[in-house]
User: Fold these one by one.
Assistant:
Number 1:
Amino acid sequence: MSVQRVVVTRSGGFAGITITTEVDDPDEAERLTEAIRAAVDHPSGSARDDFVYEFTIVTSSTTDRIEMTGAQLPPGLRPELRSLFQRRT
Amino acid sequence: MHCTLVPPYILQALARQDDPVVRDAAIATLGYDKTFAVSRVIQDAARRRSPRTAAPIAPRLQRLIHDAEHGEDLPGRLVRAEGAPVSTDVAVNEAYDGLGDTWTLYEDVYGRNSIDDAGLALSGTVHFSEQYDNAYWDGEQMVFGDGDGVLFNRFTISVDVIGHELTHGVTGATADLAYKNQSGALNESISDVFGSLVKQYALKQSAAEADWLIGAGLLAEGVQGVALRSMKAPGTAYDDPRLGGKDPQPAHLRDYLRTTSDNGGVHTNSGIPNHAFYLAAVALGGNAWEQAGHVWYETVTGGALHADATFPQFAQLTVATADRLYGAAARTAVAEAWVGVGLVTS
């Protein structure tokens, strides 16, 4: 079942400001989903004021929600998410 | 990983020396990535001495500022240890000074020897990642981003941000409030309360004189707002579409935000206990770090506060603490402060 889009929400952080962006290119969404699923078992850490990321992964028939902390994010994904959020503004 | 010419076991032995010069140099080198471990080494050494013969160890400030150089490896390169000259890097100096101001409030006013009350070296890392709009406490040290320069300035700019992060360490070492829903909002509020008190104590401002803002100076030029939060008037710190609109903090329980984001809105609902502290401090009068600060400090560190505490439980405990420390008038003032945010205590 191919991924159609991924909605990314970042909340928390010291500022506590919530921002949302979306990846609607199916190839990009698929790649992002693979990276997220690979990182789910990374330790979430016990940081305070860390960001909280919520990924809503939408296929033609399912909607999955994955939450992870900033500490859990794979380093390679950080620049990509940064530019995604910048694109939004 | 890092390499030093002196093996770690020798540095650990040196860190136990009584000579402060030798000890500081060893701690600075070791503390590069092991502030907690170093603290344990020193405590263990102190414990092995006979308590009857050992002179009490005077609390000593021990700061270690690192530079992540826009990477994400912590703690990064040590750039300023305790007593080292002023850096040419403003973020390094702000972190150094802010850690000092925070340590001083806890030591001077509450008699607390660093965040663990056992002399833990304070470690902070500046220039974390790129365009990083955040500061956090990772369980062992503080981490500061430079901000994106468009919405946020560097996160060391506001001393209350530094006090906020360090206070997460104090809460973690004491009540260890669970970082979710109401206990999480209390955890956040306690960091804002003592973050603000660090600033007020450094500026010697009374409760009436203080601005009660969290993150003043943090919003970049052109952003509509004065800070990230206001304890005096939650919900009024900013109003800018680029920050998602208006400051969403409630000042009253009736406006409590139910959400799954941000661990259950911990940075939003903290506005309620924040405002209660402000009301209590103003009612008690004088300097907020005195009666109001002592009541909150004793409530957080006294051992009676549960990790899963709710707003009403916390409120009840502050009222009882006020009564115990300062008597009936203080009890009434604190109880009325909680009524002001919609919480009735018995």
Number 2:
Amino acid sequence: MKPVLTLIRKDLTLEFRRKYALFSMLLYIVATVYISYLVFNRIEDIKTWNALFWIILVFGSIQTAGRSFVQESAYRFTFYFHYIRPQWLILSKVLYNGMLLTLVGFLTWMLFGLLIGNPVKSPGMFSLTLLLAGFGFSGVLTLVGAIAAKTDQNATLMAILSIPILLPLLLTLIQTSRMCLTGQSWGDASSFLLVLGMLNVLISTLGYLLFPYIWRD
Amino acid sequence: MKKSWWKILSFVLILYSVIWGFLGDVPRLPILNETIRNLYFHVAMWFAMLGMMTASLVYSIKYLKSSSSAHDLAARIFAETGLVFATLGLLTGMVWANFTWGAPWTNDPKLNGTAITMLVYFAYLILRGSLDDPEKRGRLSGVYNIFAYVLMIVFIGILPRLTDSLHPGNGGNPGFNSYDMDSRLRMVFYPAVLGWILFGFWVTRLRLRLNALRTKPVDELFENLQ
């Protein structure tokens, strides 16, 4: 487990050293939320709020997680290849991106609350949904990002490859989030939260098993 | 003759399902009426598609283990045949839905599942197109194929159970779920499914052989050079 923690710390250090990536992500969220604010002002309709929130979050996540393999220099890959088991690398990347994307989720929520309105009736359940969303997105996007990084058209392929396989997760998330917005009880939402948890486990397991094949060059 | 028994079986089963599908007796159900016969054609397409996608998955796994280009090629061609079945399933479904539901496309979990499945496999083919090195192409698209297949199965398997579907047998609609699927329907439906799956394997084999013939001059040239 120790090498995974070291790798996560390395990613964190790099992120803070090159602040532009962090700020570009922040700027993306602020800009898109602000555009929605200019168009809608306050959103009372739950359906619109839900749709807008998840569209902004999905594209923000694709932007954020998509660069996690591109930003590593080629020399560092050679170094990893000789010293690290590929499973450690994918685990560290998924955990790191998961934390980052969860943060992005909460930031988007905060900005929405500030500008557009916060109709969430059960904040606790919504926080759990955002956490599951962050790590689920991270699992899919890190693996697809690793595939896309090996091709020439990284940015285009990232969207084409990840959106269709994100949809099962996304549709479940949107349904769960609708329940949070209308203030359903934990008992009603439990089946959805369970499916989300299972999808998370499934995605991480697949990533863990398949990543060594992408890695071998 | 010995090797082609399954091709003959496929032909006979499809012929039987077409003839008996139109002549045979079917249960009289409200709303569905005679359109219930679409079960033999429309639903059989989906089973054939799933069969092809599963074969594609098996070859992708084989490729990751063996790195032989034949396995990679088979994975691609099976996925392409699967997409043809998906298109046919979509068309037969849309004609049927236009009569039964009054619209060719509705926001139904099964339809969304299909649309996403097709998007995933088109993305798979685009990924293949963007990679030039055959070894790398096989490896990366194989990983994507496995990842996408598992998530797709989860999607078609779980999500329709969380929401209601307009499809017969769901949400109180008359139809043929496991309890009231009539034995008269079964007698045509199961042979039709088997027939179309075998037909899919046949088409795929023909395309694989065609591909081998096309690349033969290049392979021979390569061997002569070595």
